[in-house]
Amino acid sequence: MGKQMTEMLKGTLEGIVLAILGGQPAYGYEITARLRDQGFTDIAEGTIYALLVRIEQRGLVDVEKVPSEKGPPRKVYSLNTLGSGYLEEFWKTWSFLAERIEHLHIGHPQEQGEK
Amino acid sequence: MGKQMTEMLKGTLEGIVLAILGGQPAYGYEITARLRDQGFTDIAEGTIYALLVRIEQRGLVDVEKVPSEKGPPRKVYSLNTLGSGYLEEFWKTWSFLAERIEHLHIGHPQEQGEK
DNA sequence: ACCAGTACATAGTATCGCTGAATAGCAGCT
DNA sequence: AGCTGCTATTCAGCGATACTATGTACTGGT
Q1: Where are the domains of chain A?
Q2: A3-106 architecture in CATH?
Q3: For D7, which residue's CA is nearest its C1'?
Q4: What are the CA-CA distances from residue A71 to residues A27, A43, A75 (Å)?
Q5: CB contacts, 8 Å: A8 with chain B
Q6: pLDDT per residue rounded down to tens, chain A (115 residues)
């Protein structure tokens, strides 16, 4: 992708990760891999780990260290009550924004240019 | 709104403004007012003006100074060819992201279940 | 003269995601 | 034992964006 995606991910990537953790606990490497599978091929590992540190410091997740058979111990993150509330607000914010943007999209379909 | 919205607007606000300009030319103050009408009550004027300066410097818009009866001359921005292409890419990026996020939303609404 | 409304501009701050590298454990191969 | 590759986490420095707060400039009403 490119710069547009990078900027657009600001604020939403956090929600995406929280939503994934809302489904089931996971650790950083796993989350990165899952995102890649879903098409986010350009998201750097470092980005996810930094994000996980942030949401941990804000108390949105609980952490448990689990030994791995193939490397250093995994830090397994799970969404706690505070995180669930935050995720709920994320969905509200997202819905608000998405609704208005879709409205703009339908309002003036930009299908006139050719590439 | 709050901090979530602030972060989420990064990257999307530019697309929103370009989409508005794609509908018809407009000037900064007007754009700000229209955004407020649409529910974006917390978007500061300074944010819009700074954004307009950026997209002008990138050559995405053409500018025309039009005298106003009630204040300093208006800077009317209109989307040019380059800007249209950029807007088109914005919609692609947005669609990609929105699709995946909606999938996450539908994927695990409130319950966590096994697949 | 004062103030509200219109209209634009900007310096300073905080946050976020990316780049690039370092650190560390384990397995298989030579 | 050393090398390579995969797993797994961490961190410093950078670029881009939106917000805060303020300032400038013009018009009309009181």
Answers
A1: 3-106
A2: Orthogonal Bundle (1.10)
A3: A71
A4: 13, 22, 12
A5: 10-12, 93-94, 97
A6: 688 999 999 999 999 999 999 999 999 999 999 999 999 999 999 999 999 999 999 999 999 999 888 888 999 999 999 999 999 999 999 999 999 999 998 876 655 444 3
